[in-house]
């Protein structure tokens, strides 16, 4: 049986913050719909207990490292 892990910092990042980090400025906001998720936060406790994984960089730095790797 496989395992599923959240690889996360436990912090909260809004869509607007993520768009800013990715230099996206033209966001098309749509009306709210039933079932929209307005806030979510991952819990990395399981992966830490499984193999000691800890986040070493923040979201912004992680995105920069990912962009520089792929671009």
Task: Describe the protein.
The protein is mainly α. The protein contains 3 helices and no strands. The protein is extended, with a radius of gyration of 15 Å. The protein starts with 14 loop residues before the first helix and ends with a helix. The model has no long low-confidence stretch (mean pLDDT 90).
Q: What class would the helix/strand composition place it in? A: mainly alpha
Order of helices and strands: HHH
Largest sheet: none
Number of strands: 0
- In the predicted model, the low-confidence regions spanning at least 5 consecutive residues are none
The amount of beta strand, in percent, is under 5%
Approximate helicity band = 25-40%
Mean pLDDT: 90
SS element count, helices = 3
- First-last Cα distance: 35 Å
Q: Which features would summarize this protein structure in a list?
A:
71 residues; mainly alpha; 3 helices; 37% helix
Write the layout of secondary structure elements.
Blueprint: H1 15-21, H2 45-51, H3 59-70
What is shown here, in short?
With 71 residues, this protein is mainly alpha-helical. It contains three helices and no strands.
């Amino acid at each position: 049986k496989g395992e599923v892990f959240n690889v996360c910092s436990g912090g909260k990042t809004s869509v607007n913050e993520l768009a800013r980090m990715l230099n996206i400025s033209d966001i098309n906001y749509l009306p709210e719909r039933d079932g929209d998720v307005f806030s979510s936060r991952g819990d990395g406790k399981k992966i830490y207990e499984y193999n000691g994984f800890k986040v070493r960089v923040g979201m912004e730095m992680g995105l920069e490292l990912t962009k520089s790797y792929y671009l």
